[in-house]
Each structure stands twice: as C-alpha cells, then as structure tokens.
Amino acid sequence: MLELTDIEAGYGRTQVLHRVTVPTGKVVAVLGHNGAGKTTLLRLAIGLIKPTRGRVVFDGEDISSLAPNKRVARGLAYVPQGQQAFGQLTTLENLQLVADGRRRGKALIDAQLSRFPALEKFAGRKAGLLSGGQRQQLAIARALITEPKLLILDEPTEGIQPTIVAEIEHTIMQLADEGINVLLVEQHIGFALEAAERYVVLASGFVTHTGEGGLAAASTVRAAMAI
Ligand SMILES: Nc1ncnc2c1ncn2[C@@H]1O[C@H](COP(=O)(O)OP(=O)(O)OP(=O)(O)O)[C@@H](O)[C@H]1O
C-alpha cells in the first residue's frame, strides 16, 4: 500500500504540491482541474521528482529517496500520459522489451495478450500503427509485465475512442480484483469514482476534498470542483 503524507514538491523554485496527503485504498483516484498538480503527484510517487517535505512509504518502507528503478523493483509501475510506445517496434516486440530476461517472460506476455484481445490480434503490427486506445492498452500491458503491486496510471482514457475507454475501465476494475492496487489520475469523474475506493481532489496543489469513492460521491466532487 502506498502512503503519500504531507508532501511538498515542485520544479526548481516553483512549489507545486502543498502539504498533500493522499488517502490509501485499493484504487485511489486523484482528481482536479488542469494544472492542479496531479501529474506532479504521480511523478513523485514513482520517484521522478523528490519531495522537499513529507514521506513516500510503500508496504511499510520509506521510499522517499529511492530512484525510480528501485521503486519498480519493489512493485510500483507507472504509465505516463500519452500512450507511449516504441512506434517502429511491433506490439509483441514492445512487450518483449520488458519481458525478456524475466523468469516466465513468455507466460507474462501471454497473460497480457489474453487480457487485451486487440493486442493479440495486432501482435505483429508496428505500435506506431495502432490506434491511440490500443497503444494505451499496450502501455498498460507493458507495465503489468513487471508484475506490479501498484499501478500508477495518468489519464489512461484521455483522447481515446469510447469503446476502448470501456475496455480500459473494465481492466482497471479487474486489476483491483486481482489484488493490484491502482493510483489513478482520470478526467472521467464518474468512472474514476466508480472504480475508486477513495479519492482526493487537488486545486492549485492543495488538497481540497477527500472521501470514499462510489458513484454517489460524484455530485459532491463535481460541486467541489465547481463543474
Ligand atoms: N517540468 C516542469 N517544470 C516546471 N513546472 C512544471 C513542470 N511540469 C509541470 N509544471 C507546472 O506544475 C503545475 C502542475 O502541473 P501538473 O502537470 O502536475 O498538473 P495536472 O493536474 O497533471 O494537469 P493536467 O491535467 O493539465 O495534466 C502546473 O502549473 C505546471 O505548469
């Protein structure tokens, strides 16, 4: 379980996050308008930026000063915004990049190909020719090959056609059932709250609301975000 407590962080002299504490849960949604600091919080969780105050604790261990690769080794995985993949490599080669050298590498790939039928269908297609949604599924599949305990997802449904949005939403719910925790930044508030056990709303780097997830929380959150 990831604990982010009393975090301050930013870029150079610009402080972005102010005394941010995130509730713990199997699926935790981070909500807020553009520029609120959501991506910064995720980058901090994976270790791309370091806090100037506060603690990052994972499974009881203080990982605040650990490098990202060490955090991955401990069971964190990060899927940044933007459906990133190696466009000149095939779908399968993108997965092999992560799986090669791992024990049971082939089984790990097969598990993800059966999770995402579109990836199985286009295993031989260059990733650059996949749809945005398929590339997002590939990015999630790559992260899952590292067998994370916690998957950190930054806007996984952004700019993606509705049918694939539904599949990605289904995947996130499934991960929680499989015992993989999720820290999720997501613009679709309804879905984020449906999936989330807890949520936090950020505004200008401050926590303005936290609470239990569930669709019933949507009106509270929309009011809090003035939308
Ligand atoms: N590399 C950077 N250097 C300096 N400032 C940055 C950097 N990245 C982000 N910021 C600033 O930090 C603030 C928070 O940005 P962040 O990307 O965390 O917000 P966000 O809530 O994820 O927004 P969005 O929904 O638009 O992705 C913004 O004011 C942004 O301009």
Describe the structure in your own words.
This protein has 227 residues and is an alpha/beta fold. It has a domain of 158 residues: P-loop containing nucleotide triphosphate hydrolases (Rossmann fold), CATH 3.40.50.300. Helices cover 37% and strands 26% of the residues. It contains nine helices and ten strands. The strands form two sheets. It has a six-stranded mixed sheet with strand order 6-7-8-3-9-10, with helices on both faces. Strand 7, helix 7 and strand 8 form a beta-alpha-beta unit. The two termini are 31 Å apart. Bound molecules: adenosine-5'-triphosphate. The site of adenosine-5'-triphosphate has 11 residues, from strand 2 and helix 1.
Report the average pLDDT across residues: 94
SSE run: EEEHEEHEHHHHEHEHEEH
Sketch the major β-sheet: 6 strands, mixed
| CATH architectural grouping of the domain at 2-84 and 150-224 | 3-Layer(aba) Sandwich
Distance between the termini: 31 Å
| Uncertain regions spanning at least 5 consecutive residues | none
- Our count of helices gives 9
Q: Portion of residues in helices? A: 25-40%
CATH third-level topology of the domain at 2-84 and 150-224? Rossmann fold
Structural class: alpha/beta
Number of strands: 10
Order of strands, main sheet, comes to 6-7-8-3-9-10
Radius of gyration, taken over Cα atoms and rounded to an integer in Å: 17 Å
CATH level-1 class of the domain at 2-84 and 150-224: Alpha Beta
Q: How much of the residues is beta strand, in percent?
A: 25-35%
Assembly state of the chains shown: single chain
CATH superfamily placement of the domain at 2-84 and 150-224: P-loop containing nucleotide triphosphate hydrolases
What form results from the Cα inertia axes? Answer: globular
Distinct ligand kinds: adenosine-5'-triphosphate
